[in-house]
């Protein structure tokens, strides 16, 4: 029928013009009280990488992973009870993802102005997050990262769109995820299980992880 295309185009235009659902950062901060038991008050994760850093992570990535935990398309038993719809609605997913993405964790110790009280100074110091420099060949790691990873994760590893931030993440956590991708336990964004990660030697991956730890504080 000749009128269908204009009608469809009109409907699409209306949908695109509709404002995105507003997020509630205060609600996200409240929800984070539950997440903080494992991921820390500021979303900084576990000090040894047993739990990933969430602060500053990409909104769309956080949302996608929370929904994947909820549907069990990404299996993680500890996360399951917290991400069921009765516990974490779509609105809650948007709010907590937006809140965590907004948290900034500096990579340098703060300079105090002199008027801060002891608690404020302590909180400022606690927010500093510096991942220890991993061992590896930075030149090789940088070259491989630029060729294999930068197109999705950004030049300095801070993520793009649906693809997560890698710089500032715990090296031990990243290594465990690489192993999960290579074994097919997690789906990578390539056609084959593990994708391009299976084409890299173990030392090459270690070099890439070392390169990422050297990118802290760099801006794209």
Distance between the termini: 50 Å
Tally of strands:
0
CATH fold name of the largest domain, please?
Answer: Cytochrome Bc1 Complex, Chain D, domain 2
* SSE sequence, one letter per element: HHHHHHHHHH
Q: What is the count of structural domains? A: 2
Helix tally equals 10
Radius of gyration, in angstroms, nearest whole number: 20 Å
Share of helix, binned:
40-55%
CATH homologous superfamily of the largest domain, by name?
A: Cytochrome c-like domain
Structural class: mainly alpha
| Average pLDDT for all residues | 89
**CATH class placement of the largest domain:** Mainly Alpha
The CATH architecture of the largest domain is Orthogonal Bundle
Q: Hey, roughly how much beta strand do the residues contain?
A: under 5%
Shape: globular
Low-confidence stretches: none
Sheet with most strands: none
Give a written overview of the molecule:
The protein folds into 2 domains: 78 residues, Cytochrome Bc1 Complex, Chain D, domain 2 (Orthogonal Bundle), CATH 1.10.760; 76 residues, Cytochrome c-like domain (Cytochrome Bc1 Complex, Chain D, domain 2, Orthogonal Bundle), CATH 1.10.760.10. Helix 3 packs antiparallel against helix 5. It is built from 10 helices and no strands. The mean pLDDT is 89. With 220 residues, the chain is mainly α. It is globular, with a radius of gyration of 20 Å.
């Amino acid at each position: 029928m000749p009128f269908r295309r204009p009608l469809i185009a009109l409907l699409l235009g209306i949908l695109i013009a509709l404002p995105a659902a507003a997020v509630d950062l205060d609600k996200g901060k409240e929800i984070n009280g539950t997440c903080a038991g494992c991921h820390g008050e500021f979303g900084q994760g576990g000090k040894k990488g047993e739990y990933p850093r969430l602060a500053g992570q990409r909104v769309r990535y956080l949302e996608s992973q929370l929904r994947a935990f909820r549907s069990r398309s990404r299996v993680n038993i500890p996360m399951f009870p917290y991400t069921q719809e009765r516990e974490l609605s779509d609105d809650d997913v948007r709010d907590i993802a937006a809140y965590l993405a907004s948290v900034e964790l500096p990579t340098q110790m703060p300079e105090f102005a002199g008027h801060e009280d002891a608690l404020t100074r302590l909180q400022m110091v606690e927010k500093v997050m510096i991942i220890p420099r991993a061992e590896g060949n930075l030149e090789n790691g940088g070259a491989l990262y630029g060729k294999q990873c930068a197109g999705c994760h950004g030049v300095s590893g801070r993520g793009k769109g649906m693809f997560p931030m890698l710089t500032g993440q715990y090296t031990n956590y990243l290594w465990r995820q690489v192993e999960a991708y290579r074994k097919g336990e997690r789906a990578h964004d390539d056609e084959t299980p593990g994708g391009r990660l299976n084409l890299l030697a173990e030392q090459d991956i270690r070099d890439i992880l070392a390169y990422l730890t050297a990118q802290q504080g760099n801006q794209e």
